[in-house]
Amino acid sequence: MKIGHAIKKCRQLKNISLSLLADETGLSKSYLSLVENEKRQISLESLEKVSSLLDVPLYLLIYLAAEPEEMKEIKGELKTEFDNLLINLIKKNE
């Protein structure tokens, strides 16, 4: 699971800077950068703060973070279609 990549993707889709995310969540910019680059783990409490600020439900962040082998029940093409739908939904909520 690559939760950091999902956070970064959603943050960029929402045009939210890393600095703003840090300021609004109370987490340091360097820590969030490490999380986004998959060099640090994030606690559920911090993930909930990030999810709330991004206005992306936690379950969608987790879904976007799933790697192909974790989603083997969903065929590749269908997962890609779901991903694209979710990204469009995230963009619309800006």
Give an overview in words.
This protein is mainly α. The chain is built from 6 helices and no strands. The chain has helices at residues 3-13, 18-25, 29-36, 44-54, 58-65, 76-92. Helix 1 packs across helix 3 (29-36). The protein is globular and about 40 Å long. The two termini are 25 Å apart. The model has no long low-confidence stretch (mean pLDDT 88).
Order of helices and strands: HHHHHH
Mind telling me the C-alpha Rg? 13 Å
Query: DSSP helix count?
Result: 6
Work out the helicity level. 55-70%
- What form results from the Cα inertia axes? globular
The unreliable regions are none
**Major beta-sheet overview:** none
Mean pLDDT: 88
State the total count of DSSP E strands. 0
The separation of the N and C termini measures 25 Å
The proportion of strand residues reads: under 5%
Given helix and strand content, the structural type is: mainly alpha
Give keywords:
single chain, 94 residues, mainly alpha
What's the gist of this structure?
The protein is an all-alpha fold and 94 residues long.
Present the secondary structure layout.
Elements: H1 3-13, H2 18-25, H3 29-36, H4 44-54, H5 58-65, H6 76-92
Helix pairs in contact: 1-3, 1-5
